[in-house]
Amino acid sequence: MDHSQKVIFLQTKCHHHYYTAVVATNMILHISFLWSLLTITTMTSNNGFNIPAKRKISVSSSSDGEDASSSDAVAKKLKNTSSDFVARYAGPSEEECTPEQKKIRDDIIDSRPRTGLSGPFGPWLAVPAIAQPAQELGRACRYETSLSFRESELVILLTGAKARSHAEFDIHVGEALKAGISMEVIAAIPRDDDFSMAAVKEKLVPLLGNDREKAIVTYTAELLDTYSVSDETYNSTKEAVEGKDSVLVEITSIAGYYTYVAYTLNAFRIPSK
What we know:
By secondary structure, this protein is an all-alpha fold. It is built from twelve helices and no strands. The protein is globular.
């Protein structure tokens, strides 16, 4: 091999090593970027950021940072206490319905294909003048507010807990899990005789992920416990929801509607399943 060939050989070898080094560096940078993205995504999902209302959420996921084993342990303690209830009155059967009742019945089933006439709708159907506006208000409170799915479920669970409605609470445990609320948070909600604004602040509020959720829960707990809210609570909650009085109307309406639902479930002993 003469001198010129040796030079070409060495240049080619150097270029080869340089190319290899560039490729390796790019791969390392790419892996680092993916790892950073994964870390950021995990942190975001574990800090209780608001979940859009109509988003589909996996039941197995949790935005409260709770691991699966801990969740399973809490779930065993939080047993369904209303699935064995025997209804005192479940409403008119399909054969007993008048044309007006059948229309309302069909409207309820069409708007709630997954749950249908379960819950309070059966008894309400006995009085069409009550059933129709009640189911329309329910649809608005459940699906048409600016609150996230997670925020709505916190309000509903608190309402069920205060109203001693085991059926309402049991039904919405499943909905809350879909919204990304952990079993640890659900189990921390004081119920029945233990419910009070002070207990909610002590046991539940510290587990929540952001100031907006904490304000909504505090407002709801005070409203349910005292049937009103102080100026301090009203103003601090309004500030947490970007100064929108309309959001406070929505929170109050959800608590009010689900109190009505709870009374119906309690009076007629409607089971959760």
